[in-house]
Amino acid sequence: MQIRPILSALRRHRLAAMLIGLEIALACAVLCNACFLIANRVRDMHIQSGVDEASLASLTISGYEDRQSVDVNARVTAGLRAIPGVQSVSVLNSIPFGERRGSMGITTDAEGLHRGGVIEFYLGGPGSAEALGFHLVAGRALQAEDYQSFSGLMPSFAPVLVTRELAEHLWPGEDPLGKSIWSKPLHYQVVGVIDRLVVPAPALWGAGTGGWSAFLPAQPGPGLSGSYLIKAAPADIRRVLRDARETIAKVAPDAVLDLQGTQTIGDLRESFFQQDRTMTGILVAVIASLLLVTALGIVGLASFWVQQRRKQIGIRRAIGATRQDILSYFQTENFLIVSGGILVGMVLAFGLNLALMKFYELPRLPLYYLPMGAVSLWLLGQLAVLGPALRAAAVPPVVATRSV
Predict the structure, then answer these.
(1) How confident is the prediction along the chain (404 residues), in pLDDT tens digits per residue?
(2) How many CB atoms lie within 10 A of CB 212?
(3) Residue 59 lies in a domain
(4) What is the residue range of 385's domain?
(5) pTM for the structure as a whole
């Protein structure tokens, strides 16, 4: 089929073709960026925490003074350990998908010249590392003597476990064992590397920083109290947590139970990503609505052109054009309009992505989203024009030429 007659016909219907092209361009820009946002949110929702989520629950209390922390820790841990089905109870300042309580900027030198960014310190008492269940890939496990008492917010010097992701960020291509982390006046030495341990709020950190975590051993006390990690069999964990809420009312009646922070890790994950699931649903609805409107626009325009060109179609049929020729004409015409809209839409897609990067700190749109969006819109255009094109191909020559 020759393209020149199609282009000549489009020039005579320039305004209508431009409107459909702009609609396609807008659909391309929104489709590429919306799919990119959906993919990022789905990836975030399926992030691996690195801990034994199915067996863990967090319990948080407040409302007591620092001088009572040792006594409160003793009463609470003893009461929770007495619950049938409890495998372990330990004190831990933060938990994956919970509140951030140990975020701190670090350097890799004592002078503070080589900044390492902001990382999350999990400050845990004896038994907490084992309860979390993360996997040690290098170095040694923590020993009993590593858990020492401290004053202030964190120990001033201690051995530390870092994640593989953090180690690669701080010392790319080097052995992290024996290296130091500084946050004056705090100084920690790396004794082990763990495979994975996400920060408490991974989706709120920058891209590629969700695993910048370190585990710091410490004895419970004024700086480490009120937040407890409970481990039980996956089948028992919900029942154990219900019993734990009742136990707190008995062993620590002067404390206030934080219901938001007293959940299983699975429930904390569900709560944390609730907004992401809602936003994903909204974006899917936006994409579906936009594609529907675009398809209806193509159908409406093609149907209008078929009605206007009945005489032209009949003449072509009378001089030998087949049904397939008429069908191909409208499909090719649609392909050219959609292609022009896609070219403009790709530019708009990058512009929209730059705005999202500037105001919402999103990563750059990967190039492979553009051909994926283009193929989707080409298929949509061909499906949308198929009905009007088939009706055009079905026009009998004798009916179309009676008025000639």
Answers:
(1) 568 777 777 777 788 889 899 999 999 999 999 999 999 899 889 999 999 999 999 999 999 998 899 999 999 999 999 999 999 999 999 999 998 889 999 999 999 889 999 999 999 999 999 999 999 999 999 999 999 999 888 999 999 999 999 999 999 999 999 999 999 889 999 999 999 999 998 876 666 788 999 999 999 999 999 999 999 999 999 999 999 999 999 999 989 999 999 999 999 999 999 999 999 999 999 999 999 999 999 999 889 888 888 878 887 877 888 888 888 888 999 999 999 999 999 999 999 999 988 887 788 999 999 999 999 999 999 999 999 989 888 888 765 555 54
(2) 26
(3) no
(4) 4-45+274-400
(5) 0.83
Task: Indicate the number of domains in the chain.
Answer: 2
Regarding whether 193 and 113 lie in a shared domain, the answer is: yes
Q: Of 204, 224, 254, at which residue does a domain stop?
A: 254
Q: Can you spell out the DSSP letters for 302-335?
A: HHHHHHHTHHHHHHHHHTT--HHHHHHHHHHHHH
Look at residues 171, 145, 91 and name the one whose alpha carbon lies nearest to residue 123.
Answer: 91
Q: Residue 222: inside a domain, yes or no?
A: yes
**Helix, strand, coil distribution of the chain in percent, nearest 5:** 50, 20, 30
68 and 199 housed in the same domain: yes
